[in-house]
Amino acid sequence: MSTKIAKSLYEHDYNLWLEQILQQLRHCAASGDGAFEGIDLKNLIEELESMGRSEKRAVYSNLKILLMHLLKYRYQPEKRSNSWRSTIREHRQRLEEAFGDSPSLRNYFNEVFHSCYQAARELAAEETGLALDAFPTEVFFSEEAVLNPDYLPE
């Protein structure tokens, strides 16, 4: 990858850039050609992998909290508050910011959407005191709706 392309990718999709740099570093480490002699490639690769995992953990966490609040909003209409709406808005904004920095994280968002929903169901049941089966096992709103700043499940 040329330096110009790498810089452009870094500016437009941090996570994808990170994955490609890791792939190149692993190749260099495996080839043992001495190009990076004196650089601790093993630990550098581990640190960069950790950065990528951190980006994904943030998406997972923000999505889970967003889904939990959407469930609470839908199933406890009598307790709806500005605080809940604010939390929903904040976590949507966090996700959109992550996608702005790394559009490829949208793929991860889609991959973990259903598992986040299941985790959100458990959190919503615990926080509301409702039985877990009060919340549908199947997601009843789409990924697009979840990110839509105007969507609130009624």
CATH class: Mainly Alpha
Beta fraction of the residues?
Answer: under 5%
Instruction: Give Rg in angstroms.
Output: 20 Å
What CATH architecture would you give? Up-down Bundle
Overall geometric form: elongated
- Assembly of the depicted chains: single chain
SSE layout:
Elements: H1 3-12, H2 14-31, H3 41-75, H4 82-101, H5 105-128, H6 143-147
Task: Describe the 3D structure.
With 154 residues, this protein is mainly alpha-helical. The protein has a single domain, classed as Malate Synthase G, Chain: A, Domain 4, CATH 1.20.1220.20. The protein has six helices and no strands. The chain has helices at residues 3-12, 14-31, 41-75, 82-101, 105-128, 143-147. The mean pLDDT is 90.
What's the short version?
This protein is mainly alpha-helical and 154 residues long. It contains 6 helices and no strands.
What labels describe this entry?
154 residues; 6 helices; Malate Synthase G, Chain: A, Domain 4; mainly alpha
